[in-house]
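haha ok so turns out i had the wrong file open the whole time. this is the CORRECT one, sorry everyone. sequence first:
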Amino acid sequence: MISVDRALDQILGCVTVLEAEPAPILETLGQVLAEDIYATFDIPPRDNSAMDGYVVRSADTAGASPQSPRLLRVIDTVMAGSISEHEVVPGTAIRIMTGAPIPRGADAVARFEITDAAQRKDATREIAILAEVKAGEDLRRAGEDITKGAKVLSRRTVIRPAEVGVLASLGRAEVAVIRRPRVAILVTGDELVDINKSLPTGKIYDSNTYSLAALVRRYGGIPQVLGLASDSEDLIRAKLNQNLDADMLITTGGVSMGDFDVVKDVLAKEGKLVFWKVRMRPGRPVTFGRLKGRSKAGVAKEIVHLGLPGNPVSAMVTFEVFARPAMLKMMGRENLAKPTIEAIIEESIDNDGGFRIFARAVVAERNGRYFARLTGPQGAGILTSMSRANGLVVITEDRLRVEKGETVPVVMLDWDEER
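then structure:
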């Protein structure tokens, strides 16, 4: 039995960053850029108005006030997306909308609020400026956001909605990113029934397929559901033969010490078993190895395999601890650690076996401090304890008991890695 830290090190040591592929920008959220992005033009491309109002020569507004307005002749109106062919000369102004290019001769914008436009029947012919405007006021200069030739986004940047917007502003419909890992999911157990079938006496519905597929999607992967397999070496082997081109295989069940726990035996024959059992609770019977596979092109490859326990809570917790960081590394992410905070525990927790405990908890902030309370009974089959939790209280192996009121680390389940 090995420690959680050593197990994770061994898993990450076997995982490599996947290759890059082009993808439409709207499909790249959470992925990592595989190229540097340079601007081929200025943004904005021309000086433009930051406000609705009138473009003027600032000199024409000198000394303007409500008591001493400056009357200007309006010679044109320019909307966003259009360009005025007129030049602003002394004594004139052009009505302008936000984002429209600044006409020749103007050096400032007088916003509507400092004019008498609201009181005039026809503000397209003449306008009174009621306050002095300084040169450059309410103008957005060409290249103010992005300068032609500049590196705008660096390779290895994680794409968020803001980066999608920047790419769109540069006219990029597609971009090179580290591809998403394909994660095959195989759930075993004679007691399990698919949710689309009726439930016979003595059986339970399969939840692991769905919770794990949801976790794969949440962290940016592509789930490939292989379905259910009975506790039979031949049937499990037949299911695994469907999985030729995944990057990771996740199985649940069949990895503990029962007579019918055969997954680890099948994987030992079909690939290489690296370790079995981790000093953690829940989730001790975790298996890790490499399985023989084949790409769509027929090239032999190794597929990372994680054999997770069959209990629903154990499966989800071990996914968070081991599968999630492995997936993120495959995607080229550099920050693999889930956000962790310090919280005051509101009840005592025993750790009598020298394991690393991951206790489901509800974390709340009060008066600038975090407090954690357990979700209730912590059995590995109580899946609702995960649905109620927003954090995992971590009790390290060297702490045999944590008393109420002590400070403990809590892994925050609902916070993402970029927080």
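The chain has four domains: 4-18+179-330, 28-43+145-178, 48-140, 340-412.
again sry for the mixup
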